[in-house]
Design goal:
The protein has about 280 residues and is of the alpha/beta class. It has helices at about 60-70, 90-100, 115-125, 130-145, 160-175, 190-205, 220-225, 245-250, 250-260, 260-280, and strands spanning about 1-5, 15, 25-30, 35-45, 50-55, 75-80, 85, 100-105, 180-185, 210-215, 230-235, 235-240. The protein binds adenosine-5'-triphosphate (ATP) and magnesium ion. Adenosine-5'-triphosphate binds near residues 32, 55, 62 and 217.
């Protein structure tokens, strides 16, 4: 599974040999007691793309993401990583998959008592045998990639919300993951800072050919980054498509969710008219 050192990137660590990286979920069901949270959800997360899971609060996005990573067991159904079902994997196989996963948790989840550098270094301390010098170098590389230089010695309380998200993103990619999961990466950020984070995630996804899955209800993210979108409604997959398909979608529930305001409904109508004129 593991390849040779990546000299081109200046990384003194091994990088996984990239396969296709597709994740497919099939008929996933999940309940908590009597409450059915996921009902027969099937969807594909495309490799090298920014895949979004969207839907109102409580529609099941976080639970779906957790079942995809194997943090929550499914009641039935399959979660296939390149055809291999993680719901049936033993601990060793699951650990191997987890080594290839980067995760940005809802809320960021930085350690307040650790510096930025130590926060980002944490997965390397936990899961690698790298020397301290190698780790510092790798941390500097990823912090530079998220445009955060000279913040190494700061504590989370001393930096802004947008910077915290970038630290969390740097930590999620420090092990050069093949799969990147981000749960609400823009929560609590202003629209402009959100766009900076979205752009960064999208660039990193393409640059390193990562299969990225983002939970969001940020409409800017949907329109700017939605290569592939899964719309959840009451624990069911209601719709699946791209940000371009959304403009033309006739799904009433999706339209009510995306184009919630009168302003956006008008913007959709205008985009459709423009597209028709261009065709005709
Ligand atoms: N551990 C749990 N035990 C019981 N119910 C749960 C548990 N985790 C989630 N739920 C329920 O599952 C449903 C879906 O929750 P989930 O957190 O996936 O929603 P979400 O779409 O991520 O919402 P948000 O946008 O607010 O983050 C909710 O009704 C929630 O109360
Ligand atoms: Mg959630």
């Amino acid at each position: 599974m593991w390849g040779s050192p990546v000299r081109g990137l200046g990384l003194n660590m091994v990088r996984p040999v990239r396969g296709l990286g597709m994740i497919e979920i099939r008929n996933v069901r999940k309940s908590f007691g009597d409450k059915v949270v996921l009902q027969d959800v099937s969807a594909k997360m495309e490799a090298g793309k920014t895949n979004l899971i969207i839907g109102t609060s409580g529609s099941g996005k976080t639970v779906l993401m957790k079942t995809m990573i194997g943090l929550l067991p499914v009641d039935s159904g399959e979660v296939l990583y390149e055809g291999k079902d993680i719901t049936k994997m033993n601990d060793k196989e699951l650990k191997e998959i987890r080594m290839q996963i980067g995760m940005l948790f809802q809320g960021g989840a930085l350690f307040d008592s650790k510096t930025v550098e130590n926060n980002v270094m944490f997965p390397l301390d936990m899961f690698t045998n790298m020397t301290y010098r190698q780790k510092v170098r790798r941390v500097d590389e990823v912090l530079a990639r998220v445009n955060l230089v000279e913040a190494n010695r700061k504590f989370p309380a001393e930096i802004s919300g947008g910077m915290k998200k970038r630290v969390a993103l740097a930590r999620a990619i420090v092990q050069n993951p093949k799969y990147l999961f981000c749960d609400e990466p823009n929560s609590g950020l202003d629209p402009q800072t959100s766009l900076v984070i979205d752009k960064l995630v999208k660039e990193i996804t393409t640059e390193y050919n990562i299969t990225t899955i983002i939970n969001t209800h940020d409409m800017n993210t949907v329109m700017e980054s939605g290569d592939h979108i899964v719309y959840m409604y009451n624990g069911k997959k209601q719709w699946e498509g791209s940000n371009k398909d959304i403009i033309f979608s006739k799904d009433e529930k999706l339209n009510a969710f995306i184009f919630a305001s009168e302003f956006l409904t008008k913007a959709k109508e205008m985009s459709m008219m423009e597209a028709k004129e261009q065709k005709g």
